[in-house]
Amino acid sequence: MASPVVHVTLLAPGLGRDAASCAVQWRDAQALQPWQSRFCKLLAQEQWNGQHLPVAELLIGAGRDSRHETDGKMQGALICADPVHLRADRDTARLVPAAMLSLSDAEADALLEAINEFLAEDNLRVSRGDACHWYMHGRDGSALLTYPPEFLSQRNASAFLPEGEASGDWKRLMTELQMLLHSHPVNTQREQRGLMPVNSLWFWGGAPLASGGDEATPPRRIHADEPFAVALARHLGLECLPLDAFDPACVDCDVLVVDRRLEQAMLARDESAVMQARQRLLDEWIACWERRVRQGEDFTLDIFDEDGMHGRLDAEVLRQMAEAAKASSPQSGASLAVVAQGLRRTASALWRRLTGSR
Fold first, then answer.
1. Beta-bridge mates of residue 88
2. pLDDT average, residue stretch 229-239
3. Backbone angles phi, psi at 345, to 5 degrees
């Protein structure tokens, strides 16, 4: 009896070229895009993309942030307003997301108090979930096109500045808040401790959920812990299981997996966690799937990161790798002793040429 067709799609930001040594064929033909954009596309939700995501409505609506304001007048206009460190020079800009700033709850609350006092006369308010995830209430950001801050952490942010309707107003607000935050005592104290100041807010993720899209056409199973993935799946009426429930050896149907643990460890500069996450992906998951392909299962793995890298593992890829290895190996039938003798002759000839000896 033929084995079932199994297709695993893995969204793994941070893996990409670092996995070039594993049994995966990598190509960089894809466009740069946040993992959220790929996730939406895989669920046939083309109305959302990397610049236009319904993050604020999904996460607040899903109850992820229990401390946000629930005043009715604030509910109609939501946008993410995450704290960042933004450093610009003549040609480039570097954005450091909150995940890399080690921002405490007390620091976040002190900054929010000053920000909300400044915004009060415009009937705007910023609230937070945890110290890294903030939201602005009261201004419509549904048409703003801008990228997630963590996607920009390793890129020239000046190439990804906000676009779209009223983007000029948002940029002016960013500038005003930068001036406010510049001399805030929290930032003064952070700099004295050798930490980067929180000198700007990054507005993103304000797309409305009301946008019409195609009916979701998901794989038979989704595994993710990332709040946006879980909330979007729930919004679309799809089941999303946790990563801990995922066993790569037991996959028997189409599966979509979102695993950001490697990227999150990189952002946290946790070398041990980076090594652990990489080992799990390469030495456990991918090695397991390679064995299944070699055993004759009809198995295909597609990996996408955020840097335009697309990895593929299937029987055809392994065949091509085997042929390439054979073509680059010593001539068939040649023993190691013969190969070594040839290398010695070559080395001896080079030495004689360099020294002029015979």
1. 93
2. 93
3. -65, -40
Separation CA 124–CA 147 (nearest Å): 22
What are the structure tokens assigned to 283, written together? 């030495």
d(CA 39, CA 48): 10
Residues 74 and 135 in one domain: yes
Do 83 and 167 belong together in one domain? yes
What is the distance between the alpha carbons of residues 184 and 182, in angstroms, rounded to a whole number?
6
- What's the average model confidence in pLDDT over 251-268? 95
In a domain, 335, yes or no: no
- How many residues appear in the chain? 358
Q: In the chain, how many domains are there?
A: 2
- Residue 166 per-residue DSSP state: T
Nearest residue to 229 via CA among 244, 239, 217: 239
What digits encode the pLDDT tens for the residues 148-187? Answer: 999 999 788 888 888 887 889 999 999 999 999 999 999 9
CB under 8 Å to 97, separation ≥6 — which residues?
Answer: 82, 84, 132, 149, 150, 152, 153, 202, 267
Write b or e for each residue in 265-300: b if 16 or more Cβ atoms lie within 10 A of its Cβ, otherwise e: bbbeeeeeebeebbeebbeebbeebbebbeeebebb
**CB-count burial class (<10 Å; 0-12, 13-18, 19+) for 222:** buried
Q: What is the pTM of this model?
A: 0.84
Tell me if 160 is assigned to some domain. yes
**pLDDT tens digits, residue range 322-345?**
988 888 766 545 455 555 555 555
pLDDT score for 68: 40
Q: Across residues 266-283, what is the average pLDDT?
A: 93
Q: Is the pLDDT reported for residue 211 higher than 60?
A: no
Reading the block at residue 152, the tokens are 């920009």
CB-based contacts of 334, cutoff 8 Å, min separation 6 = none
